[in-house]
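Weekly puzzle thread! Below is a chain. First person to post its structure in token form gets bragging rights.
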Amino acid sequence: MRSATLPLLLAALLLALGPRLARQGFRRLVQRQGGGEAEASLSCRAAELGPEASKAELEAAGRPLPHYMVEAEDGDEAKALARWVDTLRWRCDVGDEAILAKPHPNFDLITPHYPQFLHLPDRQGRLTYWELVGRLDQRAMVKKGLTPEDLFEHYIWSTFFTWDVAARDDVQQVTVIADFEDFQLSVLTPTVLKVFVRVAKVLRTHFPAREHGIFIINAPPWIERAYRVVRPLISQAQRDKVRVIQGREASLEALHSLIDPANLPASYGGSGPELGRSPLELLKKELATAGA
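Winning reply:
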């Protein structure tokens, strides 16, 4: 259970306490993106080299073995290379470059009801990634005609923006902040959990070891209890990344220790732009509107 972002970690905790939900493939996403543009992408050209491709061949194809894959495999370069080749095939199948090249019309429909933001750096210069979990509202998305597949595709689009646009350097990590203020268990409908499980699988498989730390702020008391149940099932490296903070005052104190107030939104006691107004978020909105 590696490298799930915070709501997905929460989903994994709850799933560990209940029935396992079915996982679906990417067929519809592939059909929506179409194969024409993806066939000429760097990922497709590299994937065509086959499972025995060498580091040198992949580098020459423009898809060198990333540092994070080696880290995820505890330094075993052979395993990392095999995993990267699998990821290149997946990237080719879903059309990684085509996804960002096209407009993403559901961006403005989903964001108010599933707020995710790339924001200004922490004190060590790492980008911060925020999810306002308490504002997740799947029922509002249904009223707008959005489907679980739309939410899944939105998460994939946002993931590609994060790692292919905002943080292209393969050693760069992000600090994840999940705000559970006003969170109610009722928002975790079976539909939402199924989407989270699907995305968690993608992140664990294809984007491992990319978060530096995971901070759960304004956490309800039961989150920590649930986390203790599954803690033994998580690697020590992953455990060391997670910090659960309860209460508004303690959460603000932790945020100010982690992030310079000039980079914190005013709603969190800082003097920086509000979430959604960082330069990266403005670029994200521009790409969603017009494509690359």
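Puzzle host: Confirmed. Bonus trivia for everyone else. The two ends are 33 Å apart (CA to CA).
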